[in-house]
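Would you mind writing out a protein's amino acid sequence and the numbers that encode its backbone to help me picture the idea?
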Amino acid sequence: MMGLYRFLLGATLIAGGLVLPTPRVANAQDSGLTIGTLAPSAKLQTLDGKTVDLAQVAKGPAVIEFWATWCENCEALLPAMKKAQAAYGSKVKFVAVAVNVNQSVNRVKLHVAKHGVPGEQLYDTSGDATGKWDVPATSYVVVLDKTGKVVYTGVGGDQDIEKAIKRAL
């Protein structure tokens, strides 16, 4: 529950125009998953309403981004995510988790179609993944290696996704 509180606080601060500095590489982070831990199980919905487990969907190597239609950092990160998927999509699974803050499933579907958000699209209806993955803000990226262990976490629109993926391979 503490992760959800931090996420909502971060989303409120970002929406209000205040963005707190967050480390891009999470070696000594205050929130987010700890490097070396296994990806936790969390219930999500596909955009057509089926329940899935994020830990099962994101079997490594994988890149998972927690995003929102209104997130400017997510918009800035989108070209890097598209480029990474084009380069590594045959070796790495890409999963996009839309958070359930000020957006609907329909709005997410429209945004994905318009902007080509890469990866398998999931929706965190209840905040289960946001809480269990200790998501500090939107644009939060987690990279898992083939064993499902976290090798990278970061927040922001200028993350080096390719470098993070190379840690997982």
In short: The chain has a mean pLDDT of 85. The chain is about 35% helix and 20% strand.
